[in-house]
Amino acid sequence: MLDQSSNPDTSTIDPLSDMLRGLRLEGVTYKRCQMDTRFGRSFADGGMARLHVVSGADCWLREPGGAWVEIPDGTGVFLPRGEAHALASSPDEALLPFEAAAGTRLCDGVFDLDCGACKGGPIIFTGLLRFNIDASHPLLRLMPDVMRSCALAHGGDGRDAAVPSLIEAMAQELSLERVGAAGILARLADVLAALIIRSFVENGCADATGWIAAVRNPDIGRVLAAIHRNPEAEWSLARMAGLMGASRSGFAERFARIVGETPARYVARVRMYEARQWLQRDGIRVAAAADRLGYESEASFSRAFKRIVGVSPGRLRAAASDGAASAR
């Protein structure tokens, strides 16, 4: 997913930038809704990322895990995997499906929803977004369920001043109904999501493990960025430890503690994700994928692939071929 033209062992000054390089979002639909002062809306698991912008009043977010957290006015909320969640004026409000509201099409992919008769509550702008990688990619799997521009929400130091400007620009695109608004919103949403991720990383809005902790850590972040730049490389424990300047045992312990799994397991998942893309998207033969990843035999590659992905590479490739044939 990332630029693989550079040397995979090059030291990374900013691992976050390296890991976000090449990560792109494409807007599918955008919806704007003026809420009542009292409201509750649920969002089903759509299999894609969700972006919410709340403007005009505070509200509450029920996270995918079930906990309610307060969302201040002007906050951007990003759910990278788009799992089921809810927005409400208070946690005890009854929830109605957001998608059930009648909508007026403003332009391609942009809708204005009728979410209540009295109004007076916040305006919620929501986007259903697709990454150029899918939810099974290790990079997305390590992201937290919810990220938000918490520096703004908690009186940050002003480094995220671009966030409210972007939110205002998105609101103007929706309200003015100008030609090309959908395309402009998609680009603004891409930038806004990246800023929310950066704000979340920089301002301590996550626990001590997983992807956020890893990219905060310059040593582990450097290793992760190198793996994602060139997943086809031979990533031995010694090579990864050398990037961090640590012993193999010290590196392995630190990596597992911060990332939440062993270096070998993480590398294997990254490599098998790449192989899955080759088989499904590019239609290459299983033997070719095994050779590209340096496996001694097609059988050993197939066993490793099935253990991690859950289906044999041959079956996956055949299903992709059948789907492509039926679409013709």
List low-pLDDT spans.
Answer: 1-13, 151-158
> How many DSSP helices?
13
Strand share of the residues?
15-25%
Q: Look at the structure and name the CATH superfamily of the largest domain.
A: Jelly Rolls
- CATH topology (level 3) name of the largest domain: Jelly Rolls
CATH hierarchy, class of the largest domain: Mainly Beta
User: Span from first to last CA?
Assistant: 27 Å
What is the SS-derived class? Answer: alpha+beta
CATH architecture of the largest domain: Sandwich
What does this structure look like?
There is one protein chain. The protein is an alpha+beta fold and 328 residues long. The chain has two domains: 18-202, Jelly Rolls, CATH 2.60.120.10; 231-326, Orthogonal Bundle (Arc Repressor Mutant, subunit A), CATH 1.10.10.60. Helix content is 44%, strand content 20%. It is built from 13 helices and twelve strands. α4 packs antiparallel against α5 (181-202), α7 (218-229) crosses α8 and α8 packs across α9 (248-259). The longest helix is centred in the middle third of the chain and has 22 residues, at 181-202. Residues 1-13 and 151-158 have low confidence and may be disordered.
